[in-house]
């Protein structure tokens, strides 16, 4: 069927973008230009090679053909899935629809909505938990009567003393709970019964540690919010004024379509003249997706923020609540994904009629979902960890760790001659996005002329790393460049998160490679020398995390950057422990290389030295990861070897129109609830047996905060089955970096 369907079929989605270009980004694109690496080659380069169930049937499907085929909703610390349930309360949904429609028409005037008022939940002392007899009986069944009584007493004490800090309350230690499923049930019960006012963790003896939660112990009772504070009204001054509202941090829900989180927050910051540091969030989200996440903003009034809904493009905000604390990276349980894989094909489908093919697909998908729920997948770092350009971010990280900072800068400023050629010919007959063409033109200008002002004027704003380096290296005094050879200064000019991304990508590549070797050698067997975490209570402590929410181990002694904060430790199993059956493969962790971690006390530990000492590993020593540049002096971290979804469901659907939206977004549901959703005949899912039907696989899964949905999909689809939609220029084999 034709790939150009936009002229023949009305769009089902009511887009929030107020410009035609944004609508085009979700349209079906022509095939990419030659020279792209396929996903399989990129996986091999990143060390992603093994499968848990290599013998089970896979399938092939197109991933993210439309950005609304990838829905991501955060799972917040309470265990609830976050949804956008209102758009600043009084914002008219019909106005949203009409302004979106108008935004797609050149020269149209958008209707101005009524000035919104935000519904703000008051931050006040929560009522005590009313415990049912059933809940009490369930707690006693899990913990016994005496431990349950102590837990109930702890909750009562926490509720009576909201001003106390978490450390001021005692901790309750349960009896050993050997079965992991039983421990999981115990954690969930504690969270549900006490409404996340108590935290629980597991110690090295598989006993639960129950303690006051950070949120429950730190909130203070606040006065009722004064309704006189309307949009544009008197701003609260000083700490006391904000405490009247409920706290200095406004928490809100951000819904975004095909936008980076920081892209939206930078816009909000410009409107309020606030620096990015005023905003905090718990985890980064994919750009090419519809994502819902929680954001906190320091000293921003809800009414003023709600008013931005009329000007936000590709985003909406709601769910306001003042709190006394900001959000932090890693402060979430995970994410729920709703994923649509389009144009799917299955082994053995050739020669089958449409109904038989549909039935075959249902059987394969059902089996694949059950396998992942039971056996899980190797907890690889996904490809997004390694960047989108031809030079992977881990290659930059290697150069930084080797001390070759000049080479690291040159790699960051590298560009593809194919993108450059497309830029010079105006982008004719190419699918390379205009930003990538402009980037190549700007970097060539810098390379050939050294004119930083001209290069920066050409560079798209989203390439913050390139902009920072060129700005720094191009600085002049009396007409002479002052920083021309200061490579450390150039790298230091990049934001800290972006700098760390390069060296963390190297750690991730090493981890992936070692994980594949661990699986090939031992599979699901627990062997002598495998590592298990000593104290999982640190997962609830104030430890450092990287830009993806991944836990980072703190260095020891004077190298430590976080004072006396707890940090995770792991130890190797003895032969007796490995053979006892006390530990399962789900308990085994592998380290990300650093100077403050233990390595497996077996051949896998030796493989770290072998691989990291190789050419691909950068000729580095895993036991010598300290550097004179303290920021890249890697302390290391631990990551579970295998993972499995907390929830996973799969279905097969038939469709004929490539613009059909097969899963409803939060805005779709709001429109439907308000009665403003428009019927669209082209959006109806086709019945199996239609001769023109294509097959889609629709998956829902819940994963932990450091797990990658693409790696779960890879296990399900097998090698080469997951075809990322090439709507953007990402990977070219022929790559050119700037000359010395």
Automatic annotation (TrEMBL):
Similarity section: Belongs to the pseudouridine synthase TruD family.
Cellular component terms (Gene Ontology): nucleus
One Pfam family per UniProt: TruD
Domain TRUD, residue spans: 376-644
SUPFAM superfamilies per the UniProt record, alphabetical: Pseudouridine synthase
Protein name as catalogued: Putative pseudouridine synthase TruD/Pus7
Keywords of this entry: Isomerase
Superkingdom classification of source: Eukaryota
Originating species: Microthyrium microscopicum
